[in-house]
Design goal:
The protein is of the alpha/beta class. It has 3 domains: 3-71; 82-303, P-loop containing nucleotide triphosphate hydrolases (Rossmann fold), CATH 3.40.50; 311-391, Arc Repressor Mutant, subunit A (Orthogonal Bundle). Helices cover 48% and strands 20% of the residues. The protein contains 13 helices and 15 strands. The strands form 4 sheets. Strands 8-9-10-5-11-12 form a 6-stranded mixed β-sheet. Strands 4-3-6-7 form a 4-stranded antiparallel β-sheet, covered by helices on one side. The radius of gyration is 37 Å and the shape is elongated. Bound molecules: adenosine-5'-triphosphate (ATP) and magnesium ion.
């Protein structure tokens, strides 16, 4: 019996034979070439393991470093909801650099409704995008709830955007094939905290908050611009954000619808929501609690300085208009009473209906008070009893 049959072939020998085409056992002996191959293979394997270990440890180290860095900047006892420090953003356009932000400092507290006004190209959207974690600054820091978000990795930043920030843009950005409710549910899917039933309930609650629960099953094309923007606001609040950022929230709406949306924002703000909005629309500043003015990448000053003057003039104009309307109203009442001489009891509603709506609608005072004033001024012998004017 040949010797070779006595030596059992190992899997390694089989691998050697397959790879080289040589026999591992020759004339009953383990071949010298196989022994050399085996030694070399062992060394190569050790080398490969070392490389793998090194790569693994490098990844681990990097991860650890990032976690330590992120942990370090997470200050739980923060003074302001948001602190922006010396923020710079420079865009590179080919070979030219565009300095969009040139040192912005800002603090935002919970419950603020901030409006940033400024001419086109002054850097408003850039500032919002940085605060909302959509882009990273070139220089400077942004602390959100005590955490420096300007240093975070892309993944952590995406998580912050998803969990802590609500966004509202000029063109609503609703998904056209989805209903209002499904649109509001989108962020809830991503956070994955609620059951399907929970998500539907929350979406419906949010739509109720913006007065659109009855339109929950309508798609955006079946809603007006103002309604679509209200859905977008409901969606922004889906994950109970720390702050909601709004870029030109009324930019695509007519002034009346814009004011309706702003009223909703003010209402939400009064219930504790925090907003930062940028807008060309001066009406936004009327609803904001703090107004900043921006120019050439810098915040120039805070305050409704320009706005206050405007408001005073507007208030004066409104007061004058009210006075004129009141006089017009009295004149019409007088004409009506003159035409109805001889009657003893006249329903107030009848007198009211005889006056053009445009006059009555623009009078904040109670109609009966104006009627009473007229009676006193003209020494009529009459009195108002309930809803009836009784003349003597
Ligand atoms: N992605 C970009 N790449 C290059 N330059 C940019 C980019 N985004 C903005 N800019 C430039 O940065 C400056 C500030 O732009 P930004 O959009 O922030 O202004 P804005 O105040 O929002 O203007 P608008 O009122 O017109 O919306 C502008 O000069 C603009 O051209
Ligand atoms: Mg802009």
């Amino acid at each position: 019996m040949p010797k070779s049959t006595l030596i059992k072939k190992t899997p390694l020998m089989e691998q050697y034979e397959q790879e080289t085409g040589n026999l591992a056992i020759w004339k009953g002996e383990v071949s010298k070439n196989f022994k050399k191959w085996k030694k070399k293979k062992k060394q190569e394997d050790i080398k490969q393991q070392k490389v793998e270990l090194l790569t693994q440890s490098k990844i681990e180290k990097k991860k650890m470093k990032r976690e330590i860095r992120e942990d370090k900047v997470a200050d739980k006892d923060y003074d302001h909801l948001i602190v922006v420090e010396n923020l710079h953003k420079t865009y590179l356009l080919g070979t030219t650099a565009v300095a969009a932000l040139r040192g912005v400092d800002l603090t935002i507290d919970t419950g603020d409704f901030i409006d940033i006004m400024g001419p086109s190209g002054s850097g408003k959207t850039t500032l919002l995008n940085l605060i909302g974690g959509l882009d990273a600054p070139t220089r400077g820091k942004i602390f959100l709830e005590g955490r420096n978000i300007s240093m975070l990795s892309d993944n952590s930043l995406a998580e912050i955007r998803r969990e802590r920030i609500g966004f509202v843009f000029q063109f609503y950005n609703l998904l056209p094939q989805m209903t209002a409710m499904e649109n509001v549910m989108v962020p809830l899917h991503f956070s994955g905290k609620l059951s399907r039933r929970g998500k539907r309930k929350k979406a419906l609650d949010l739509l109720r908050l913006v007065g659109l629960d009855e339109r929950a099953h309508h798609t955006p094309s079946e809603l007006s611009g103002g309604e679509q923007q209200r859905v977008a606001i409901a969606r922004a609040f889906a994950n109970d954000p720390a702050i909601c950022v709004l870029d030109e929230p009324t930019g695509d709406l007519d002034s009346k619808t814009g004011v309706m949306v702003l009223n909703l924002l003010r209402d939400l703000n009064k219930r504790g929501a925090t907003f930062i909005a940028v807008s060309h629309d001066a009406a936004v500043s009327e609803f904001a609690t703090r107004v900043f003015h921006m120019r050439d990448g810098k915040l120039t000053h805070e305050g409704k300085i320009g706005g206050l003057k405007e408001t005073e003039i507007m208030q004066l104009k409104r007061r004058q208009e009210t006075e004129i309307n009141k006089e017009k109203c009295k004149c019409k009442i007088f004409q009506y009473l003159f035409a109805n001489q001889g009657r003893v009891e006249i329903p107030v509603s009848e007198i009211k209906n005889s006056i053009p709506n445009s006059i009555v609608m623009n009078l904040p005072e109670h109609f009966n008070d104006i009627l009473q004033e007229l009676i006193e001024e003209n020494n009529f012998f009459g009195r108002i009893e309930g809803e009836i004017l009784i003349l003597n």
